[in-house]
(S)-2-hydroxy-acid oxidase (Microcaecilia unicolor), 356 residues
Amino acid sequence: MSLICLSDFEAYARDHLPKATWDFIAAGADDSYTRDDNILAFKRIRLRPRMLCDVSVIDTSTTVQGMEIPFPVGIAPTGLHCLAWPDGELSTSRASDAMNTCYIASTYSTCSVEEIAAAAPKGLRWFQLYIYRNRKLSEQLVRRVEALDYKALVLTVDLPYTGKRRNDIRNNFHLPKYLTIKNFEGAFEGYDGPEDYGVPINTLDPSVSWKDIYWLRNLTRLPIILKGILTKEDAELAVEHGVQGIIVSNHGGRQLDGVPATIDALSEIVNAVQGRVEVYVDGGIRTGSDVLKALALGARCVFVGRPVLWGLSYQGEEGVRKILQILCDEFRLSMALAGCKNISAISQNLVQFSKL
């Protein structure tokens, strides 16, 4: 079977992964309304193409935090890649490097930050961070990724507690014994209590507040990007607290169900920050035209999560490369058909919202 679009890879992963693994990847919180709306929201946006624009040459390149990438699609932080493919994040890292794009490595990786860096030494990598009750855990991770030339920290801010993912509860989902969260190897030696996705429960610090952004800024010189912002009020506070970027994200619909789809929240964030920091978006991107819509609404770049895991389940590194290549090719074609020869030609005039 020839897999020619992301939904083909989704169908393959659903058919070939163990049920508990598929349920973990697909999980949304509660009724999964937000997870599903992330995709449906893109379908409510119509494109307004312009004609006779000379699109004989198309330039899809852009920059993120000053680093050039050939097309505006990066890899969002998702955990436990070894569930989908034996060498997990190593394949993801190599695929991202082969496509010259940005990979945000998750704290909850089944390969260590050192292993991920060694798999693609010249790759553009950011690191997704949580703040833990034991601040030393977070501080040590920051020091490690700084030494490994990761280029930014992506602080996830929408997870003071883990959302209720019903199928994971029904399946009594646990990390298989042959896998560990490699970034914490040795950190919880002797612990034999209940776990939350491979880490002792109550490890995350629910008291984290805006003052901790100052703590993190004093800890590192790396750019700090906040992932999980959905309102103009928090976007304005992010700018006031000196961060360098925002990822508009609802954690793939895995945290608070009933929040807006990320593409619906994007314009509010873009308007609030007024170009003072870069704004990115994740959630629900399945086609190149979705990428075009996101950029038209002000995103600098999009990040994809679940599709990367689908690609891994198909052919490891090659599968992830195919996912990224499909999005790149579809985006280039969508740009051309919409009359946009480069990124700067994409504007809000390109989109309109339609009721379904």
About this structure: The longest helix spans residues 317-338. DSSP finds 13 helices and 14 strands in the chain.
